Amino acid sequence: MAQTEKRLENAPDNPRIKRLSDNPRAFVVSSSELFRTNNWTAFAHDWKAQYKLLQSLIHERRFAAVRALLQGESIKAPPLGTVRLAPEVVAHALPILGALPAP
């Protein structure tokens, strides 16, 4: 699993945001992108945070939650609230994760 988590860590970032160099968790997103996606939450645009959520769920062996996210469903992920992965994150994560252990 450590190799999988490392590959998720190196997965591509959202090309429509600009990360701030002094704080990699901070970024700028254009208002047109917010309107295009109709989603104003930072998590929706922060692919790295979404990969980190997948890493955390895998580390906690919450494979049912990972499966749900990869199928486009929402899950409750405190303290983030109810979250769903960006379709692009799902497309990048599926080949990395391959077959997950049975529930």
Structural class: alpha+beta
End-to-end distance, in Å? 16 Å
Helix content: 40-55%
Taken in chain order, the helices and strands follow as HEEHHHHEEH
The total tally of domains equals: 1
Our Rg estimate from Cα atoms comes to 14 Å
Largest sheet: 2 strands, antiparallel
Q: How are the strands of the largest sheet arranged?
A: 1-2
| pLDDT < 50 runs, ≥5 residues | none
Can you characterise this structure?
It contains 6 helices and 4 strands. It is an alpha+beta fold. The chain has one domain. A two-stranded antiparallel ribbon has the order 1-2. The longest helix is centred in the middle third of the chain and has 13 residues. The protein is globular and about 40 Å long. The model has no long low-confidence stretch (mean pLDDT 92).
SSE topology:
Layout: H1 2-9, E1 17-20, E2 23-29, H2 31-37, H3 42-45, H4 47-59, H5 63-70, E3 75-77, E4 81-83, H6 87-97
Antiparallel strand pairs: 1-2, 3-4
What keyword list fits this structure?
two-stranded antiparallel sheet; two-stranded antiparallel ribbon; 4 strands; 103 residues; alpha+beta
Concise summary:
This protein is α+β, with helices and mostly antiparallel strands and 103 residues long. The chain contains 6 helices and 4 strands, in the order αββααααββα. Strand 1 and strand 2 form a beta hairpin.
